[in-house]
Amino acid sequence: MNDTRLKIHADGPVLLLGGSTLDLNAFHAVRERSELLIAADGGANHLLGSGLVPDAIVGDLDSLMHVENWRRQSQLVHCEEQESTDFEKCLYTVKAPWYWAMGFSGQRLDHSLAVLHSLARYVDSRRVLLLSDTDVSFVCRGDISLELPLSARLSVFPITPTRFVRSSGLSYPLDGLTLCAGEQIGCSNAVAEPQVQIEVETLQEGVYVVIADISCLPAFEQFLNS
Q1: Three-state DSSP class for 13?
Q2: Over the stretch 130-176, which tens digit does the pLDDT of each residue have?
Q3: pTM, 2 dp
Q4: What are phi and psi of 5, to 5 degrees?
Q5: Which of 68, 103, 108, 112 has the fewest beta carbons closer than 10 A?
Q6: Counting runs of H as helices and runs of E as strands, what totals does the chain give?
């Protein structure tokens, strides 16, 4: 990542807002726990008429309505390059301990896949919780440990081939499995014990996404805060 493009710094979690479908009640709850609200281009359109103003609007600004009105109220960061999505522009413009990301999935599959691509690209420098109406997920590499509700849905999907040494707390253990898209994946697993631990082979530390029911959000938030 080219850190010379960083323009905004935060000491606490930042909420990134995209232009896809949005649960407004969930949005307001997360907003209260975020230091900054950053809209990715047209994501700011969700806020029209609400009285809420993002701390910044980042992107190529081709989807933003009422640009001049926003310019008087918020910081507009115009990123002219067209090689990345507005979501990725937010990631390289804003530095924070970790991020919420809402309004980036659930409407167009190509947009959702592009978000996962960006999260994989920044997996070593950005910790992001991706929220939709039904799911909470994060992209990571290495071992994880989560305290989750019993019977909660939990899936592990490999973005790059990933070998799992062992797991505990899952209905279907990952012990000794190498997950690889197109060969074997770990969807529709479930929490069998409150403490879920997943250990990855250090010599082949792939990138994978953990996806759970939205009810698991507090546990995921605690994990990123640890």
Answers
A1: coil
A2: 999 899 999 999 999 999 999 999 999 999 999 999 999 999 999 99
A3: 0.93
A4: -85, -5
A5: 68
A6: 5, 16
